[in-house]
Amino acid sequence: MESNIVALLKQRDKEAIELLYEHYSPALYGMILRIIPNEALAQEVLQDVFVKIWNNADKYDADKGKLFTWLAQIARNAAKDALRSSQYKQDAKTDSLADNVGNDSSLSHNPRITDSGLRKTIDGLDEKYREIIDLLYFQGYSHSEAAKKLDIPIGTLKSRVRKAILELRKILGNELIIIFLMMTINTNL
Amino acid sequence: MNIQEYIASGILEQYVLGTLSSGEEREVLANAAQYPEIHAELKKIEAALERYAMLNAIIPPEELKAEILKKIDDGTAPPPSSQSDDKSDKSGGGFGTLLSWLPYILLPLLLLTAVWGYFGHQGNKDAQEARLKMGQDLTDCRTKNGDLIDTLTFYRAAIKFVNDKNTRAVAMTGNEKLPGASTTIHTNTAFKVTYFAVNELPPPPEGKQYQLWAIKDGTPQSLGVFDISPDPIAVDYVSNPDAYAVSLEQRGGVAVPTDVRIVGAVKS
């Protein structure tokens, strides 16, 4: 599926966007909402992300990584940019969007995990690891920003990042080798 | 280069998280192209994070898709969050004129509202309730649909995994102590992943647990104890073992198998 979408995208076939939307919009929207809890703005950013994907399709290089890694990067950057500009506009106001960032309780959305077993497993991820993945992966913090926020040295943060993702891999391990490595990896080994 | 040390350094995770400089990124790519182990590790990190994002997915409102397609069709992409600005002053000098017309516009509207309120109140309440219920139903449908997609994805992945050209199946059958028992190992040599599936296995006696082993050069290596589950279980990858075995042990497992019940030889 992934290679089909990429081929269509490179051919400037608009079906690529429909397929991308079907497959990835919930994951991207989930990421954007972590950065921008305001739904209306998050939806604008999501639209913007798809336009960016379309306009920059030729820049995607499968040798550099999986399609979703690229999409996630675009979504994170667009959300951070939008957050910055909304903060700029709300300069005078006291409760800017940024105050809500990183505060999960402010999210009224529930992720789609309704399978209680899986929910439990994901909840089983140690809080300190989940926090790191959330900050770096979902909220696009840099290492130094995350180290500052968590009040730990940057060296500790870096070693904890690997441990966190290893832990996540272990938890997801029973999910049929992470849905057979998301079903789409090129076996050009 | 020591590949294990390189992988353990955490640089591959940083690559996927997008926190490296472009020079460091190039270095990772060059190493991944040269060393299959690094390439495979990178893919596993990407897959895990992608899956995590999928599990944290939130379905956007239905109408967004059409808006996005329209924007792309139009070939124009207005910058985000432009809506709330600069709306106020467009009608400029017309404001006074509008004010003088206001009573003529408002009065009939008020009358209409009163009539509608009188006759339409009950119907409106019913309609609102029906709409609320429909909204709830739609949310339930979306959730169920999401779950079905997850399940379907899982089974498609299972088929893909089993049929992958680098996946080998090892059929394991019960010995005379456990006739009829059957389990299977599926191991993918390219991605170095293994999973274990239970086909036929009676529940273990009280206080006992089954334990899985890989046997290589005559030495058993524990792949952990397991409870019977309809889902396949991911286990540690062992390269080129001679056989896999399941033994019945005290709960929690042992260091060396004491009571082997199921065996499957790996055909080379």
Question: Your description of this structure?
Answer:
- The complex is a heterodimer of chains A (189) and B (268).
- In chain A, 66% of the residues lie in helices and 0% in strands.
- Chain A has 189 residues and is mainly α.
- Chain A folds into two domains: 1-105, Rna Polymerase Sigma Factor, Chain: A, CATH 1.10.1740.10; 113-189, Winged helix-like DNA-binding domain superfamily/Winged helix DNA-binding domain (Arc Repressor Mutant, subunit A, Orthogonal Bundle), CATH 1.10.10.
- Among the domains of chain B are: 3-55, no CATH class; 132-163; 167-265.
- Helices cover 47% and strands 21% of the residues of chain B.
- An eight-stranded antiparallel sheet of chain B has the order 5-4-7-8-1-2-3-6.
- Chain B is elongated.
- At the A-B interface, helix 2, helix 3, helix 4, helix 6 and helix 8 of A face helix 2, helix 3, helix 4, helix 5 and helix 6 of B.
Summarize the structure.
Chain A is an all-alpha fold. Chain A contains nine helices and no strands. Chain B has an eight-stranded antiparallel β-sheet with strand order 5-4-7-8-1-2-3-6.
